[in-house]
Specification:
Layout lengths: L10 H17 L2 E3 L2 H10 L2 E3 L4 E3 L2 H10 L4 E3 L8 E3 L7 E4 L5 E3 L6 E2 L3 H13 L3 E4 L13 H12 L3 E5 L3 H15 L2 H6 L3 E5 L6 E2 L1 H13 L3 E5 L2 E2 L7 H22 L5 E5 L2 E2 L14 H14 L4 E5 L13 H8 L8 E5 L1 E2 L4 E3 H14 L10 H4 L1 H7 L9 H10 L5 H4 L10 H14 L7 H19 L1
Helix pairs in contact: 1-9, 3-9, 4-5, 5-6, 6-8, 6-18, 8-9, 9-10, 12-17
């Protein structure tokens, strides 16, 4: 089967990106703000300066990490029917919601407001109901809990609100231990959680080439428990990476290789996902430019490097990411998002967000999901074989004649050709929010009609107690 995919680097380019990443790891190294992780790297063969906290990682450690890391694994849902197999051999990437926005749009009033755990559970329920959403990244930061423990509360609310794999932030070692304890309650123990990891975690290196103490220690804990880690490099061209596209690509690749080394030397065979959400900055505002055309070559290169290493990856996004809910972007701005989906990615993040990922809404989740139902026609599998080439049919039709009335056309056209849903196309006008009222009604209907299998009440009680004790330890 053949599937449309984008290639940006030739073999020489790939070799150069790899070689320069190894040179960077060996000569400059990475800043690791954790003494325990530095000791682990030191014991494993890295050249560590404990005063500067720089770990220089030799090529042999990178090769060993690549050999140890599993090439395929599952992101499991609370309901096994929602398990996600990585990598995607062909066909469609799996789509996730946008993550950790800072405000939401109220479904009833349309007003901007902070979100609560109850709101997040509603977002999770809608994600569970929408066919295109395969993984739930807690879409909004909740504000009805202490700030220091919000990530654990978001993971717990997500697990109650949907039966998808939840893929959120884990900020410290204790945060990781708490989320692992919560997930093991649902899975039936630590051993069962290792077999079926029902959550995964976004672990962002701090570009350029550094690892925060809390997150990197959390990464080690997650690796030991068998929880998949997404090493999301957020290299910003001109700010946290060189302004050149090649320099940004090398930074993305170097951070991903360093993160993989940390995971595999913490726990050989731990599941790990290569990832990039990198872009240039807007030179006029200093903000991340989500619509920049340069995102595409960076994403394509990251996808190629991930596949070179045999790594499942999340290197592109999906979703309109408008300034306000609707489809308020121009054709070229939308193209920079949409084309990234061809960059060999297994996962794509972004459904439901707007305002440069600062806000989210139920309506936008519906709009982005509906767009995916139409757009994935471009990512279908096509058979390339002697039978599908159909030279025998060509001979029967003959020179200069029409295939329209031949039985082969009637037999195969529905399989080979995609027919746009005209109603869905009616939503797709750019610079428009006219689809919002219908999206709102769709969201309200799904929230009313869709049922999510609840967690056992005793599990909920035990989980709430774990969170209560966690809050006491952290806050007091």
């Amino acid at each position: 089967m053949a599937v449309l995919r984008m290639k940006f680097l030739d073999r020489h380019d790939e070799d150069l990106i790899h070689d320069k990443s190894i040179e960077s790891l060996q000569d400059m190294g990475v800043l690791v703000r954790s003494e325990s992780v530095l000791r682990m790297l030191d014991d494993s063969g890295a050249a560590v300066d404990h005063r500067t906290k720089i770990a220089r990682i030799p090529e042999a450690m990178v090769k060993e990490a690549l050999d140890k890391a599993p090439r395929s694994f599952k992101l499991c849902g609370r309901d096994p029917k929602n398990d996600v197999e990585l990598p995607v051999d062909s066909g469609f990437p799996y789509i996730t919601t946008d993550g950790t926005t800072i405000y939401m749009r109220d479904l009833e009033t349309g007003n901007r407001r902070d979100a609560t755990r109850a709101d997040l559970m509603e977002f999770a329920k809608l994600a569970d109901a929408l066919d295109p959403v395969s993984i739930f990244w807690p879409i909004v930061t909740v504000t009805d809990v202490p700030e220091l423990v919000h990530s654990a509360h978001e993971m717990w609310a997500s697990q109650q609100g949907c039966t998808l794999n939840s893929q959120g932030d884990v900020l410290t070692k204790e945060d990781a231990q708490t989320q692992i304890a919560l997930a093991s309650l649902i899975a039936g123990g630590m051993d069962e959680l290792r077999k079926r990891p029902i959550f995964s975690a976004i672990m962002c290196p701090i570009a350029p080439l550094s690892f925060d103490k809390g997150m990197v220690e959390a990464q080690v804990e997650l690796a030991k428990a068998g929880i998949p880690v997404v090493a999301m490099s957020m290299s910003l061209s001109g700010m946290s990476s060189p302004v050149t596209i090649a320099g940004t690509i090398v930074n993305v690749n170097t951070e991903n290789l360093a993160s993989l080394v940390i995971t595999q030397f913490a726990q050989p065979g731990a599941p790990h996902i290569y990832s990039s959400e990198s872009a240039p900055i807007d030179m006029m505002t200093g903000n991340m430019n989500f619509e920049a055309p340069e995102i595409l070559p960076v994403s394509a290169a990251a996808g190629q490097m991930a596949k070179r290493y045999g790594r499942p990856c999340m290197v592109s996004g999906w979703g309109v990411e408008p300034d306000t809910p609707g489809i308020t972007k121009s054709f070229c701005e939308l193209a920079s998002v949409m084309l990234g989906i061809f960059c060999n990615t297994d996962l794509a993040v972004g459904i439901g967000g707007f305002d440069d990922a600062k806000g989210c809404s139920f309506e936008q989740m519906v709009i982005d999901s509906l767009l995916w139902e139409n757009f994935r026609a471009f990512l279908r599998e096509f058979e390339i074989s002697e039978e599908s080439i159909a030279l025998d049919v060509v001979k029967q039709v003959g020179h200069g004649n029409s295939f329209l009335t031949h039985p082969h056309t009637a037999k195969n056209f529905k399989k080979e050709l995609f027919f746009w849903d005209k109603k869905k196309l009616g939503w797709e006008a750019t610079l428009s929010d006219r689809m919002l009222p219908e999206a709102k009604e769709t969201a309200k209907r799904l929230l009313q009609e869709h049922e999510v299998e609840p967690l056992d009440s005793e599990i909920v009680r035990s989980g709430n107690q774990i969170l209560k004790e966690y809050e006491k330890r952290v806050i007091h």
